[in-house]
Amino acid sequence: MPDVTSLATRFARAQRWLREHPLALDAALAVIVLAGMVLGSFAEPYGKHGPEFGARTPGALTLVLLVLASAALVYRRRRPVCVLVLAGALAVVELILADRPAPVAMAAVIALYTVASRTDRPTTWRVGLLTMTVLTGAAMFFGTTPWYTQENLGIFAWTGMAAAAGDAVRSRRAFVDAIRERADRAERTREEEARRRVAEERLRIARDLHDVVAHHIALVNVQAGVAAHVMDKRPDQAKEALAHVREASRSALNELRATVGLLRQSGDPEAPTEPAPGLGVLDQLVTTFRQSGLAVEVARADEGVRRPAAVDLAAYRIIQEALTNVRKHAGPDAKAEVSVIRVGATLEVTVLDNGTTPDTHTVRPYAPGAPAHQRGGGHGLLGMRERVSALGGRLSAGPRYGGGFRVQAILPLKARTGEDA
After folding, report:
1. How far apart are the first and last CA of the chain?
2. What is the distance between the alpha carbons of residues 135 and 88, in angstroms, rounded to a whole number?
3. Residue 289, exposed/middle/buried by CB under 10 A (0-12, 13-18, 19+)?
4. Under a CB-based contact definition with an 8 Å cutoff, are residues 421 and 414 in contact?
5. How many other C-beta atoms lie within 10 A of the C-beta of residue 85?
6. What is the model's pTM?
7. I want to staple 91 with a disulfide (CB 3.0 to 4.6 A). Which of 55, 97, 105, 323 is the partner?
8. Which runs of E-coded beta strand occur in 276-393?
9. In whole angstroms, how far apart are CA 393 and each of 135, 168, 237, 250, 346?
10. Residue 91: exposed, middle, or buried by beta-carbon count in 10 A (0-12, 13-18, 19+)?
11. What is the pLDDT of residues 176-218, one digit of tens each?
């Protein structure tokens, strides 16, 4: 007993080869149709004792018509309408000239099926009705048998079934193609959505990393500079500065661990569970800046306001980044003011500084329009804008009249994610 798997493999290989060589398949079909029509031409349906085989012999003209009609089927996919016209004309000639016509009309039936399966429905019905009328009319009016014989009705039935079968095959093929296209489109949409979400998540994590690193490293740098400056003369103050360095570095490590932990798999037991920072811990953030030597005043008028988590985190990060920039760029005697106020359905976060610098003409490196050589490699202002834009808010940042810098973010208390206040 042959192996079923090998038979299936051979069948699949043969099917693939025939699909890649349609002309060979049509040639084989033409040979089979020719053999069937030749055998049918030897049959006599009206013998003495019923249908008989070999009771008649086809003439030379009939054989020529059979060969031409079957040969035309080789090109039925390339020129379906032309093949139908040629096969129909040869069938009409056979029906008119032959005493006992051979089944040349079978080639026209196959050609009509091909036209119906490769064109639209209106064309199918127009061509089908015309073919049925011409072939059936020629058989009824020019044939040697009475018009009501079953051969004439058979021509009518075969042509009608060919048109219907071709139309059904075309409809099924179009349906399958539509389903496949819809599936491909859905797959592309899922992939694009997945890539978009990955890009947004990477951008969000990059912003968090930038905020954490910039804030804590700036504080570590300032306190380390203070410790180095007073190490010999005032060791107690140097010890206090080093304690601040240790605390800032510990906080940086904890926040980095929490942020990088977001990259772990969902089943990782070490994934972070602590909440993201927000305005609830704003006092702790301000305390770290005050310990680094930056004078910060805070004014809040948002009591009782329930903020969405995204808005709460964005407000915290904006204040953190703005104060970090003040500490890095505004000079040693700079002072900052932070205000968080609810105005209607929005939350206004403002950070001001007096911007005292040794050179009053120096443009703040993170200010809009700063020269390229002064900007450095920071992305703080860009990160703030991206955070605010993602929530549907507005951010304005620029120099203040009379000196200093101003950063203001207006955040909607109804985030784009649908989380209401």
Report:
1. 74
2. 7
3. buried
4. yes
5. 17
6. 0.47
7. 105
8. 295-301, 335-343, 346-353
9. 75, 56, 43, 33, 9
10. buried
11. 889 988 888 888 888 888 778 777 767 776 666 666 666 666 6
